[in-house]
Amino acid sequence: MTASIGTALLFIAFLAALYGAVASVLGARLRVPELVVSARNAVIGVAALVSLAALALIYAFVTHDFSLKYVVAQSTRSQPWPYLFSGFYGGQAGSLLYWSLTLALLAAVAVLIHFRADRRLIPYVIATLMAVEAFILAVLNFISSPFETISPVPPDGRGLNPLLQDPGMLVHPPMLLAGYVSVSIPFAFAIAALVTGQVDSRWLRATRHWALLSWLFLSLGNLLGAWWAYHVLGWGGYWGWDPVENVAILPWFAMSAYVHSVLVQERRGMLKVWNMALIIVAFNLAVFGTFVVRSGILASVHSFAVSEIGPYFFGFLAASLIISLTLLVLRLPQLRDEHDFDSLLSREAAFLFNNLLLVAVIVVTFLGVIFPLLSEALQGQRINVGAPFYQQVNGPLLLAVVALMGLGMLVPWRRGAARALLRGLRSTLAITALFTVAAIALGARSPWTILSIAACAFAFVVALREFHRTALALMRARQTGYPAALLGVFRYNRRRYGGYLVHVGVALIGLAIIGSSFFQTERSVSLRPGQSVQVGQYTVAYQGLTTVNEPGKRRTIAAMLVRHGARSFQVAPQKVTFENWEEQPVSEVVIKTVYPQLDDVYVVMAASGADGAASFHVFVNPLVAFLWLGGALLVVGGLISWWPEAAPVVADARAGRTAPAAAASS
Amino acid sequence: MRRGLGLETHHFHPSSLPRGSGGYALPTVVVTVALAVLLAAVTLQIGWDAARADAIDERTVTIAKQLKCPVCQNVPVAYSQSQLADEMRQVIRDKLTQGESEEAIIQYFVDRYGEDVLLEPRRAGFSLLLWLAAIGVVAFGGAVVGIVLWNWSRARPAAVATAAPADSPQSPAGALEELFEEEFARYKRDKRS
C-alpha cells in the first residue's frame, strides 16, 4: 500500500517537474505570463508531492513495513527510533529522495521569494531547478526507487550499518546533502542571467543570501562529519582526506571562494566571468559529490560500470558542464569588467589571490580523488592516494590562504599605501611575533610548524584588531560603553563583521589542525590488567574488562585510570558488537579534554582477549578543542553575515536614501 | 593598552597619523620577552628529549601509517581495527626487531599487496604524473599571478608608493565608510589633545 502510494507520488512529481521546466521556458519565449505562473505552481506542486513521498517512506520505517526492500536494508524492529530516521537517508535511494526533497523545498521558497522582484530571470531559474529535480526524480522513479517491494516479506530487517548508528550521523548527512543541494539556487540564477543576458550584478544580489546559506550548510555538514569521524572511527583524527571527505569539502572551498569574489563584483563590477565560472564549478562539484558517494565509483571503475546510477549521473554531470560552460562562453562579450585593478595592495587583489589559491586546492584535491580511477583505467594498476599526498600539497596552499585572509582584512578597497599599512601593523606584527615565540617555547621546531602558527596567529590578531578598532569608533560616535559598542559592530555592518567572526573561527581551526597534526603523541599497546602505558605526559593504567549484554548488542568495557601530574580520572573505552554485524564490532572511543592544556586524551580499545588482556591505541591530541570552538564561531559568524538586514535599512532605501543600505552591504 | 593594539596609526588617512612619540616601546619589550621565553624553551626541550618513548613502537607506527589496510576504506594499518591490520603491525614489529630497514619492510608489503597498499603514491613511474600535475597546477597558478602582477606594475608605475587617496564617495557604497573613517580620525585627534 505505502509502496504504491509512494511510487505514484514520485511519478506525478516527475511529470510536474518536467512540466515546470518546459512551461517556464515556453512562457518566457512566447511571452505568455500565465505559463510562467503555472510553472511556478508546478514548483510548489513538486515540493508538496515529494514531501508526501518522503512522509510515506518515513511512515513505512515507523510501522516497520518490511515489504519495502529499502526498509529491510536500513532498519530492524529493535533499532532505536531516531535511527529509523537516519535509515531514511542511510542508503542510495533514500538519500536521493532526501536530495530531491531538499531541492524541491528550497526551489519553492526561492521561486516564491523572487517571483516578483526578479521577473525576467525567474522563468529560467524555474527551468534550471526543475530540470535538475526532474533528473533526480527520473533516477528515483526508474533506476533506484526507495519504494521497491520484496516478496516474501521478511519478519525483520537487516539493519543500519553500526557505524551509522551514532548521533553524529543523525545530523551530518542531512546537513551536507542540504549544502550540496542549496548550491543549485545561485547556480540557477547564474544560468538564468546567462540565458537572458541580464548579466549585471542583479543575479548576484538576489542570490547573496542563498550562496551564504549553502556555504553555512556545507560548513556545518563538514564540521559535523569531522566530529563524527573523531568520535566514532577511532583512528585518533577527524579528517583523513578520504575520497568521501574530499568530495564533501570541494564544494565548500568553491563556495568559500565565491562568497568573497562576489563582493568584488558587487562593489567594483569586476571578476564577472570568474564569479560565473566559480558558481558553475561549485554546482558541478556538488553533483559530483553526490554522485561519488552514491555510485560506488570510488571502490573501483569496475564497480562504477556495473553500478545502477553511475552512468546516469556521469551523463548528467557532463551535460550540465557542457551546457553551462557553453552559455558562459557565448556571453563572454557582455561580461566585461567595469574597472581595472588599481593596485596590488587592495582588498580586491587579496580576494583574487585567495580565490586562485582556493581553486588550486580544488584542482589538486580533485586530481587526487580521480587518480586511482585514472591509474586503474590506464595502467590496470590501482594507485592509492591517501592523506600524505593531500597534506603535502594542500598544506602549504591552505597556509597561504590563511596568511592572505589576515592581509585581506587590513588592506582597503581600491588602493592601500604600503607605508601607512606597515606603520599600522607594527603592534599587530609584534603580537603575532609574541604568539609565535610562545609556540616555539612550547615545542614548535620545524619551520613549517612555526610558519603555520605565525600565519594563524596573524589572521587571528588582525580579525580581533578590526573588531576592536571599529568598536572604539562606535563607542565614540554613539556614546556607549565598550561592550555595547563591540556588539554594535555586528549591527553596524552585519555582513562584514559576521565574516570577520568566521575568520576568527578559521584561525582557531587552523591552530587546532596544527596542534593535532604536528604535536600528536600516540602509543599502540597490548596490556594485561594492572599494566600501564606512558603517552606524552599521561600515564594510562588498565584495570580490567567487563561484558554487558543489551538488547541487540553486546558491550565489552575496559576500566582505565589516566594520571597526569597530581590529577587522575577514570575512562572506559568500549567495544560494541551488534546483532547481524558480528564481523564489524564498533569501538566506543573515550575522549577526555584536559584543561587548561587543551589536550584530548583519546583512548580506543582495539581488541580484547579471553585472558583479560586487551590492546589499545592511546592518543594525546593537543588543541582539538579549538576545532569545535572555531567551528562554532564560524557557524555563528556565517549566520550573522547571512541574517537579513533589519527593516529600517530597507525603508531608507525605498525613501531614496540609498547610501546606508548600500554601505551596509559592502 | 589601546596604544598597544595599533590604534594610533591608521592606513586610510595617513595625514591624520601622529608622528610616533615612544611608539617603539612595545616592540622592545616584546623582543626582550621573546628572548627570555626562547631561552626557557631550549632548556625545556633538552629535558623532553631525554624522556623519549620506546623506539621500536614508534617506528612501527611510523611504518604502519604509510600503509593502507587492504580490507578497509582508506584507513592506515596503524589505526585499523581489522584482524589483518593487527597481523600486519605484528609483522612490522617482528621485522624491525630483526633489524630490517624501513624501506625493506615497506617493499615487502608492496610485493605482497601491490602498490595500492601505499597511502602516499610513489614518486616514480605512473604515480609521478600525479605529483607532476599537482606541481603543474601550483606553477600555473603562480604564473597567472605573475602575469597579473607584471601587467599591473606596467599599467601603474609607482602607484603603490604614493599615499592612498581617500576612497572618493562617488559610489554610494563608499559614503558611510567615508563617514566612519572621518569619525575615527576625529576621535583619534580628540584623544591626543
Summarize the amount of helix of chain A as a percent range: 55-70%
Average pLDDT reading of chain B: 67
User: Helix count of chain A?
Assistant: 22
Pick out the low-confidence regions of chain B: 1-24, 45-53, 157-175
Classify the beta-strand content of chain B into a percent band.
under 5%
> Which two protein chains have the largest interface (Cβ within 8 Å of the partner's Cβ), and how many residues from each?
A-B, 96 and 85 residues
- Name the poorly predicted regions of chain A: 647-666
Can you put this structure into words, describing what you see?
The complex is a heterodimer of chains A (666) and B (193). Chain A contains 22 helices and ten strands. Chain A is α+β, with helices and mostly antiparallel strands and 666 residues long. In chain A, the strands form two sheets. In chain A, strands 2, 3, 4, 5, 6 and 7 form a six-stranded antiparallel β-sheet that branches. In chain A, a hairpin with a 7-residue loop joins β6 (574-578) and β7. Chain A starts with a helix and ends with a helix. Helices cover 59% and strands 0% of the residues of chain B. Chain B has helices at 25-50, 55-64, 83-97, 102-113, 127-155, 172-192. Chain B is built from six helices and no strands. Chain B starts with 24 loop residues before the first helix and ends with a helix. With 193 residues, chain B is mainly α. The chains are: A alpha+beta (666), B mainly alpha (193). Chains A and B meet through α14, α15, α16, α17 and β1 of A and α1, α2, α5 and α6 of B.
Q: Which features characterize this protein?
A:
heterodimer, A: 666 residues, alpha+beta, six-stranded antiparallel beta sheet, 10 strands, 65% helix, 11% strand, B: 193 residues, mainly alpha, 6 helices, 0% strand, disordered N terminus
List the topology elements.
The complex is a heterodimer of chains A (666) and B (193).
Chain A: H1 2-29, H2 33-62, H3 69-74, H4 81-88, H5 92-114, H6 122-142, H7 167-182, H8 184-196, H9 202-232, H10 243-268, H11 272-295, H12 301-306, H13 310-330, H14 347-379, H15 387-410, H16 418-441, H17 447-478, H18 482-492, H19 494-518, E1 521-527, E2 532-535, E3 538-550, E4 553-564, E5 567-571, E6 574-578, E7 586-588, E8 590-594, E9 599-608, E10 614-622, H20 624-642, H21 647-654, H22 658-664
Antiparallel strand pairs in A: 1-10, 2-3, 3-4, 4-5, 4-6, 6-7, 8-9, 9-10
Chain B: H1 25-50, H2 55-64, H3 83-97, H4 102-113, H5 127-155, H6 172-192
